[in-house]
Structure formats: C-alpha cells, structure tokens
Amino acid sequence: MEEKIGSAFSGPRLFRVEVETVNAFFRELVRTGLYKRTQGRVARQVTWVVLAVTMALGLYRMSGSLAGRVETVWRFGIPSVLLVVGLWVAYRVVNLPSFADFLIAVEAEMYKVSWPTRTELVRASIVVLITIFGLAALLALYDYVLWWALYLLGLKGE
C-alpha cells in the first residue's frame, strides 16, 4: 500500500504537471483572442491601465538610473523594449481565463453595490471628519492630563 501512495506522488509526475502548467501559461501569452470578450470589460481595462502605468513608471525610473552609465540608445532602448513586452504580458494576463473570470465577477458585484448619492456622501464625510477631529482632541486632552500628572509627581520636567 505504501508503495502505491509513494509512486502516486513521485517526482517525474509532479514535474510533468508543472511543465504542462507552464506550457499552458506561455501558450496563453501568445494567443491573440479575448476570453469572454463582452464581459468584465471595465474591470479588465482598469486593471490593464493600472498595470501599464505601474510598469511605465518603473521603467522610467530604470531609464533615469541608467543615465551616465550606458549609451543613450541603451538607456532608452532597454526600457522601451521591456515596456512593449510588459504591456503585451499585462494584456494577456487580464485575459487569462482564471483571472478574467475573477475580474468579471468583480465587475458584476460592483454593479450590485448601492452607491450613495452626493448628499449622502457629503453628510457621511462630515460625520467622519467630525469624529476624527473629536478623537484627536480627546487624545490631546489625555496627553496633556498625563503630562500634567507626571509633572506634579516630579517624573517629568519641562
């Protein structure tokens, strides 16, 4: 019995599963079609834009750190190539079936949210601000009272 359990989890089989998963991922990266094209468009577009901006800012910083170390062609060429590859990978990632299904579900849930009106939002924001300032004043009062008590006991100097 132990031999059957041991052989079921043998190394080559697990390695084969990992290789198949990696191969499926890279096959997905070179596809051009969209998964469930009409569903979750806004969530996918916003996610792609956030990934693109993050990559662009990082590669801009990379370009700045390469200044004076390499030739201008390399300083702008390397980040440009990485940006193009990164944009394509981000485009494909938001269309991976598992991730796209997640984004589709997120967008569906966002449509179910009952968003507050402008009046409700202003009213709630005022309540939050008053609460924050009230708590800050209360903490300042506690701080002053404790400082004063320690000063009277001689444990705290001016």
Description:
There is one protein chain. With 158 residues, this protein is mainly alpha-helical. The chain folds into two domains: 83 residues, no CATH class; 45 residues. Helix content is 79%, strand content 0%. α3 runs antiparallel to α4 and α3 packs across α5.
Structural class by sheet pairing and helices: mainly alpha
Helix content: over 70%
Elements, N to C (H/E):
HHHHHH
Basic shape: extended
What's the domain count? Answer: 2
Give the C-alpha Rg.
28 Å
Mean pLDDT: 84
| Total number of strands | 0
Question: Roughly what fraction of the amino acids lie in strands?
Answer: under 5%
Largest β-sheet summary: none
Low-confidence stretches: 1-7
Short synopsis of the structure:
With 158 residues, the protein is mostly helical. It is 79% helix and 0% strand. Helix 3 runs antiparallel to helix 4 and helix 3 (41-65) packs across helix 5.
